[in-house]
Design brief:
The protein is an alpha+beta fold. Helices cover about 30% and strands about 45% of the residues. It has helices at about 15-20, 30, 120, 125-145, and strands at about 5-10, 35-40, 55-60, 65-75, 80-85, 90-100, 105-115.
């Protein structure tokens, strides 16, 4: 994979609360940069959200609309949500991890991917843009959760 970007942030709230909100696809558009819509397009084998489920997202990145589908590869609440793209403009792997921290919860997002098509032309900008978006995502996640207190 040619893109491998990680961002993390300590959020001053309990692990279960942070992970439950962040792992719920219904909140994706509330705190994830560029996402306009997210819908559960395929349930997990046992129903609902979990390993094997698929979420279809519509986002805007570098001024372009992107429609893509992420399949849940691993779902171990409250510690891990691991997803891989099964449809979209570029292969990607998105991992959310959450760990207890003395000041609350250490939230981490890692995005790995291979740029293709239009995104190959923007490769020098792509990693910086993804990193900036992840930093903003975690900041917005914290702000959204603190508003709900």
């Amino acid at each position: 994979m040619t893109i491998d970007v990680t961002a993390d942030r300590v959020i001053p709230l309990p692990l279960d609360r942070v992970a439950a909100y962040a792992m719920d696809w219904r909140h994706d558009a509330d705190w994830t940069q560029g996402i306009r819509t997210a819908e559960l397009s395929r349930e997990a084998t046992g129903g609902g959200f979990g390993a094997g489920a698929e979420v279809t997202r519509t986002a805007y990145f570098l001024g372009r609309r992107i429609d893509y589908v992420l399949r849940v590869a691993a779902y171990e609440p409250p510690l891990l949500l691991d997803m891989v793209s099964v449809s979209g403009p570029m292969p990607m792997h998105v991992t959310y991890t959450f760990e207890p921290h003395t000041d609350g919860t250490l939230a981490r997002i890692r995005v790995q991917g291979d740029e293709g098509g239009f995104y190959r032309l923007a490769a020098p900008l792509l990693a910086r843009q993804v990193r900036g978006n992840l930093v903003k995502d975690l900041r917005d996640l914290e702000a959204r959760l603190l508003e709900q207190r």
